[in-house]
Design brief:
alpha/beta; Rossmann fold; 5-stranded parallel sheet; about 45% helix
């Protein structure tokens, strides 16, 4: 099984991904580590990424997913996966890939980004991400509100995985 914590910047993907990996006793990989230096620099400067910027990044994450599957490992990844077409690249028709969408309002997300330090993402890009976002439905992802504690979110996800 491959889980991908998804949502816009500030949704808590990394924290939830780490906790899920801990609970599932598996590896965790932050999708941001697969961004090119050029992509990171653009985001740092407040320049939104384009589809052309994202396709190679998504394909690299998919290759990492396939490597985990090849050796029979369960793994947790993070990736904003803003559009369904991006999720389709990551999923690649694979029923073993499950998305966990972390949903939050603009105000909550903006507040989180304003207090975050040490990240390359310019908080001014939040609106651009939300404009790009095609929220997944329940047919595509486990959906959790970021107003819950990280522990509550992880408990909910683990419970919902039992019925998938």
């Amino acid at each position: 099984m491959i889980l991908i914590a998804t949502g816009v910047s500030g949704a808590g993907k990394t924290r939830i991904g780490e906790l899920l990996a801990e609970r599932l006793n598996c590896t965790f990989t932050d999708g941001d580590t697969f961004h090119s230096a050029t992509n990171k620099e653009k985001m740092h400067k407040g320049i939104p990424l384009t589809d052309d910027d994202r396709w190679p990044w998504l394909k690299t994450i998919r290759a990492a997913i396939e490597e985990k599957q090849r050796v029979g490992e369960t793994a947790v990844f993070t990736c904003s996966s803003l559009k369904r077409s991006y999720r389709d690249v990551l999923r690649n028709g694979d029923k073993d890939v499950c998305f966990v969408y972390l949903h939050g309002t603009f105000d909550v997300l903006q507040e989180r980004l304003q207090t975050r330090s040490g990240h390359f993402f310019d908080p001014s890009l939040l609106k651009s991400q939300l404009d790009t976002l095609e929220e997944p439905g329940e047919d595509e992802a486990i959906i959790e509100s970021i107003t819950l504690t990280p522990e509550q979110i992880v408990d909910n996800v683990i419970e919902k995985l039992k019925t998938r």
